[in-house]
Fold this sequence. Notes:
The protein has helices at 2-100, 102-124. By secondary structure, the protein is mostly helical. The N and C termini lie far apart (125 Å).
Amino acid sequence: MATTKAREDIKADIKTLKADLTVGAREEAKRLREKAEAAEARLREKAGEAEAMLREKGEEVRDRARVYYDQARNRGREYYDDASERIDEAQRYITERVQERPVQSTAIALGIGVVLGLLLAGRRR
């Protein structure tokens, strides 16, 4: 009888141990779930901070790009105005020279036309 009593005690101890392990496992799972939720909350917070920082940096880059664009546009406008002025000067110079020497200008224009004609005709062969 002592052996049956010992067996029953062992079975009861195993059952208690099994119940304790089940409860411990549930508690550990709950604790791990809470840790995971806390870690997820911290991660979401960090992600929010990173997103805000990226937006800020993006705005800075956009502002810098806008400044560079404005500078380039102003320079382009200056170059255009300068080139336009030079073209107007060249046009006035040519007009004055043609009016001073109309026969010579006509002969030069005719010579240039002949040379261009010969060059273009040579390409077609």
